[in-house]
Specification:
The chain is an alpha/beta fold. The chain has 12 helices and 12 strands. α7 links the parallel β4 and β5. It is globular, with a radius of gyration of 21 Å. It starts with 7 loop residues before the first helix and ends with a helix. Bound molecules: pyridoxal-5'-phosphate. The site of pyridoxal-5'-phosphate has 15 residues, from α4 and α5.
């Protein structure tokens, strides 16, 4: 038996009749871009996130770029971002014309904290982007307090945190605006690329919508601002509506899998710490191993697929390296040691046990080799 890293097919199969109907409807009605499927999904997604507005966009990276631009953030502005994130958090800041300022992460949760934000604020700081990485929200109360004191905006990167909560409140409703990706591998995934911005600020929502649709104003032929084409497709929006009703049960299944891993791995490795205020949706289940590459090889040899999230910290990626930038030791260490184990809603107990057995054997082999 092999263990895949992720099984998207099993999720799509649960809603297969709805997806087949959707495809036919879109072709029959030609509602390819915009239209009722998009309106309907935006309404349900805003409700799900406990926010007043949701705007569907082309992908999660564009969601971040459009939000920054909609808030009037651009050249000359600094945006605080964690070094331990997917590169899109950073490239979106640069595409908006702003400057990313990297901060390190907490060694226990691997997330940005309010102290990191406090230490990085300058008179040019316009916003902070906490990333709810791996599905666990950052400490949004403390980060919100610092942001308020400093007069900077908080934009959540919730691309890995659909349905997660902090102190009972939904990811997406915890800052001034939040950005989601519906890339097929995310907890809620489309049939291609898609994303959304959610916010309680109607001006930000309107501006994002306008920027994503060629800068189009109230009438079809006026273009008041320089826009882009970053809209969501009807097919993508419809597929997300078809799956949204399953998201909570899929997240529950991920949490069950994670607690099984926690339990079985406890004697072997320390799991990534979960704050009691956080309810993670375990987009990923990451653990740190001293000899990560051999561990990954040993699992691979037994048919167990794993992932690396992320092996090079963002501040070391060529376009973002800046001479004289301080070391960010926690992010740098995590990049070398993190391994993402298979986790997805349909993973079986047997697959989890197989994965943990393989880890245990590898830990013991190495131990035996060390004392031989
Ligand atoms: C996936 C992801 C993004 C980008 O989303 P896309 O839809 O792929 O553009 C941004 N930030 C994080 C943390 C992500 O995981």
């Amino acid at each position: 038996m092999s263990v895949p890293f992720l099984d998207i097919r099993a999720m799509n199969d649960e809603v297969r009749p709805a997806l087949d109907d959707l495809w036919r409807d879109v072709v029959d009605t030609s509602a390819f871009i915009g239209g009722p499927l998009v309106d309907e999904f935006e309404m349900s997604w805003a409700r799900y996130c406990e926010t007043n507005h949701a705007v569907g966009v082309a992908n999660g990276t564009e969601a971040i770029r459009l939000t920054l631009t909609a808030m009037g953030i651009g050249p000359g502005d600094e945006i605080i971002v964690p070094a331990n994130t997917f590169i899109a958090t950073v490239s979106a800041v640069v595409s908006a014309g702003a400057t990313p300022v990297f901060v390190d992460v907490d060694p226990a949760t691997l997330l940005m904290t309010a102290d990191h934000v406090s230490a990085a604020v300058t008179p040019r700081t316009a916003a902070v982007i906490p990333v709810h990485l791996y599905g666990q929200p950052a400490d949004m109360r403390a980060i919100g307090t610092v942001a308020k004191r400093e007069g900077i905006a908080v934009i959540e990167d919730a691309a890995q945190a659909h349905g997660a909560r902090w102190e009972g409140r939904k990811a997406g409703s915890l800052g001034d605006a939040a950005c989601f990706s519906f890339y097929p591998g995310k907890n809620l995934g489309a049939l291609g690329d898609a994303g959304a911005v959610v916010t309680n600020d109607p001006a930000v929502a309107d501006r994002v919508r306008q920027l994503a649709n060629h800068g189009r104003g109230a009438d079809r032929y006026s273009h008041d601002v320089v826009g882009a084409n970053s809209r969501i497709d009807g097919l993508q929006a419809g597929s997300l509506s078809a799956k949204l009703g399953r998201l909570d049960s899929w997240n529950d299944a991920r949490r069950r899998a994670a607690s099984r891993y926690d339990e079985l791995l406890a004697p072997l490795v320390e799991p990534t710490h979960q704050r009691p205020e956080a309810e993670s949706v375990y987009h990923l289940y990451v653990v740190r191993f001293d000899d990560r590459d051999s561990m990954q090889g040993a699992l691979e040899a037994r048919g167990i697929a794993t992932g690396l999230h992320y092996p090079i910290p963002c501040h070391w990626q060529p376009p973002y390296v800046e001479v004289g930038r301080p070391a960010l030791p926690v992010s740098e260490d995590a990049a070398q040691r993190l391994l993402s184990l298979p986790i997805f809603p349909h993973i079986t107990d047997e697959q989890i046990e197989l994965t943990v057995d393989a880890i245990q054997d590898q830990v013991h082999n190495r131990y035996d080799a060390a004392i031989a």
